[in-house]
Amino acid sequence: MKIITQAIVLTAILLGGCSPSPKDTLLYIGTYTDTGSEGIYCYQFNKESGEMTPKFITPHKENPSFLTISPDQKYLYAVSEVTESPDFASGSVSAYQILDSGELEKINQQATGGLHPCHVTVSPDGQFVVASNYSSGSLSCFERQADGGLKEMMQLIQHAGTGADSVRQSAPHAHSALFTSKGLLISADLGTDQLDFYHYDERGKEFQPAEQASLEMNPGAGPRHFAFSPDEQFIYVANELDATISVLKKEGAKYELLESISSVPADFSGVNYGADVHLSPNGRFVYCSNRGHNSIAVFERLDDGRIRLLQTESVRGDWPRNFTLSPDGRFLLVANQKSNNITVFWVDQKTGLLTYTGNQLELMAPVCLQFLER
């Protein structure tokens, strides 16, 4: 009987060894370091409980306020949201290799030629990295080296214009940029109330205005961040200044403004600024963060792409600058900049509604959350 039992145990171990190992889910956190943060933090994320366990800290003392991970998941890029980086008379972008352990190994760092870069993105093929310089109102375009590092800046795209708000929109303020799956580069400029569109010209080896060069948003809206529907027929724009979500619909080869919906309840009378926006992995719901109202607004996507406000859930913190959904869409995590905490919510997969899990992480000035699952 003893021999049979040992054989059963051995068989179970062998079978378990043949089964695929569970995916490792890491959370990288960008911060503002002028409040005492040490740089970029990495935590292990528990996909069952929503708890976070510390793993690594990558020293980066120049406000790594926005991070992005390359499509092949091998590299991480971080802005330095400053007016001057060491050795550079501007902000900069750093390239890191993501090691098997999840630790970050710095490859190199390049100047953006602009002030306060606040966002960075990578093209779908991994060839280009683009940073948005807020204070300068420009885009910095880089080609990626074979090792994941950045070549010197290949192009600086300077925006021009003003907006309706004489204080916040007296000059261009490029706030974010994303590529479509086909390589179209779109930029949101808070200062000019525009989305600008660019395509890469192979002959000239630079980005040029696309067939639709720009799209005017509502005066004084202040477009900040945006997200695509899964089929890219719709764009959902988080407007900072008028605290709305704008829905853009693709008509032929061009996008048009379909509607703009407030992200706070009708009876709210305080000051509020929109920040970040994301869609659920299934594309059925739109989420955005409200700074001032300190909530996450949950919208249902209707069949025609329009949205309907379902919920505004308290973030249990102050100034939710950035948030993200876990890769499986079961959790939503919020980086609350002023209250120095990250809060975790369950996402109801059927209704899209949020419920606070009770889990939170204390961390100085968290402002960007990026998941890596591998």
From TrEMBL:
GO terms for biological process: glucose metabolic process. The keyword Cell inner membrane does not apply. Transmembrane segments: none annotated. One of its GO terms (molecular function) is 6-phosphogluconolactonase activity. The keyword Signal does not apply. Keywords: Carbohydrate metabolism, Glucose metabolism. Gene3D superfamilies: YVTN repeat-like/Quinoprotein amine dehydrogenase. Pfam families: Lactonase (PF10282). GO terms for cellular component: cytosol. It comes from the Bacteria. Belongs to the cycloisomerase 2 family. PANTHER family: 6-PHOSPHOGLUCONOLACTONASE (PTHR30344:SF1), 6-PHOSPHOGLUCONOLACTONASE-RELATED (PTHR30344). This is 6-phosphogluconolactonase.
